[in-house]
Amino acid sequence: MKVIKIIVIGALSLLVRFSVYSQSLPVGTTSVEDYYRNAQLMGTADTSVSFTVRPIFPSLLKRHSDAFYPDSAEKRYNLLDAIRSGQSKDHKLKWSLLPLSLQTQFNSHHPYGWNDGPMIPSKGLQTLTSAGIYMAYGPLTIQLNPQFVTAANLEFETFNKNYDDVIFARYYDIYNNIDLPVRFGTQSYTKLYWGQSSIRLNFKALSFGVSTENLWWGPGIRNSLLMSNSAPGFAHLTFNTLRPIKTPIGSFEGQLIAGRLENSGFAPLVPDHSYFGTNLYVPKLNDWRYLAGIVLTWQPKWLPCLFLGFDQSSQTYGKDLSSITDYLPLFSSNKQVKAPDNPINKQDQRSAVFMRWIWTQEHAEIYFEYGHNNNTNDFTQNLLSPDKSRAYIFGLRKMLPFNKSRNENILIGVEVTQLQENDINNIKQGYEWYVSKYIRQGYTNQGEVLGAGIGPGGNLQSLSVSWIKGLKKLGIQIERYTHNDDFYYYAYYDTSDLRRHWVDLSFAVNGEWNYKNLIFNAKLQAIQSLNYQWYLKQNPGDPYFVNGVDAFNVQIQLGATYRF
């Protein structure tokens, strides 16, 4: 009997581990996700978890914690008097309700913002609603967390109609090779997504399943070169670690995916533009795209809190899939099709290396990501031309204890993202980040970039200062965002008019506040767009000092999350 009892207890504990390990925290979860990363800086959460392969599994960072109640000092309530969880009579099936979330966003003049999942770039008001349930039955877990988006999608001035036709032609030269519509049609927008849903089989530190969750690869906070939550999540098979796997040389985390990307179905501009009677928009191939990707992070045994990583993704049109190398193209160079009737690349590929180093004694971290667009995987060539089609992200965060007795801190964060190509010849040849002459939707899903939300040719410098206490945060954010400088140099490099950089200068105040079951979030951001859409006023009498057509935009974000 004693042996049987031990076996039963062991089996039940294994079921609990399966249940806990496989409940993920969706990328971008308000307040909660930041809490875990900040806790690493303070040394109160497990620093063996890299935060470079997300979504994360919170129980690994703080043992025995509820994923959405990470602060042990927080009292748990039940304002709706709801049954938040339960199990079957035989204790094999367990379930729990996922948070109910309502997020709203308003832009007064033109679209702005990224890292907002299935929300679209739009003017006016839009809302994102999500709710769901999590179930576990032995090694099988099901997470149903759909998301519903509705947007007013109001009309606004896009590419200035007063531009010369040749400038329109150069605009289409780039945006014909990426699926980034300025506006998602001319009507209001409504769509239901599977959202942060998954079905998984889990065993110890490994998980295999199908998912539509957003992914985030790399250490960045405002941007990531290959995977972020700027676009809606896409359907994919996933084989990933649930926790770091320890080896004699250190621990490893990783993920291997095979997914399906979809097109937006919208043209770059509304309405399209013609040049000498010819429509400049060249419709893209109406075919789905297959995406294969891998990310691997290593924490060396001899350097605690240092994470070194690599990630790579490659996409191919569904019609071109024929061999195992098409389904698993990782670590291979771009495949050329030599047939005269199809002399194009079959793949669009990018890769990056990254580093994150946590200094727990200093309550700080430094991180870096460096990537190549359509890398040839030729080591010698990369050494000779490391700057060709490169992009990088650099960041530093420092937590300053402000009032230890009340657990109050000041968090300072700096992040720089550089996607701009530094050779005009590469821009002419279509080597911009996320743009592809071969896979003409570029690196997008449903009309938004999978990687850095600032888009091709964009640069961003960001500074944030916040007061933090547990899940509560009050802060400011100052940013300088340069829109597609690759287009700027491509369109104006052969003219004397080099004053048209479209630069957004923004200042924001933001806050997150937990109250009983609720977490409230708010952000008020003022954006001054200099030379909006790269346009200058015409002034033949003074060709040197010309004012740009500037625009002022106010963005308001408000949201509430109810945790059961």
Q: Could you tell me how far the N terminus lies from the C terminus, measured between alpha carbons in angstroms?
A: 39 Å
Give the CATH topology: Porin
Strand segment tally? 28
Tally of structural domains: 1
Task: Name the CATH class.
Answer: Mainly Beta
Biggest β-sheet, characterized? 18 strands, antiparallel, barrel
Give the name of the CATH superfamily. Capsule assembly protein Wzi
Q: Structural class of the secondary structure composition? A: mainly beta
Question: Average pLDDT across residues?
Answer: 89
Which band does the percent of strand residues land in?
Answer: 35-45%
From the 3D coordinates, which CATH architecture would you assign? Beta Barrel
| Share of helical residues | 10-25%
The shape is globular
Low-confidence residue ranges: 1-21, 335-344
Q: Over the alpha carbons, how many angstroms does the gyration radius reach?
A: 24 Å
Count of alpha and pi helical runs: 7
Concise synopsis of the structure shown:
With 564 residues, this protein is mainly β.
Structural summary, described in words:
With 564 residues, the chain is mostly beta strands. It has a single domain, classed as Capsule assembly protein Wzi (Porin), CATH 2.40.160. It is built from seven helices and 28 strands. It has helices spanning 2-21, 32-42, 165-175, 324-327, 379-384, 424-428, 485-492, and strands spanning 53-54, 85-87, 93-107, 124-137, 140-144, 147-151, 189-193, 198-203, 206-211, 216-217, 236-241, 245-247, 250-261, 274-275, 278-279, 289-300, 306-317, 348-359, 364-373, 390-403, 408-418, 444-445, 448-449, 459-469, 472-482, 503-515, 518-530, 551-562. The strands form four sheets. The chain has an 18-stranded antiparallel β-barrel. The protein has a two-stranded antiparallel sheet with strand order 1-10. Strands 14-15 form a two-stranded antiparallel sheet. The longest helix is centred in the first third of the chain and has 20 residues, at 2-21.
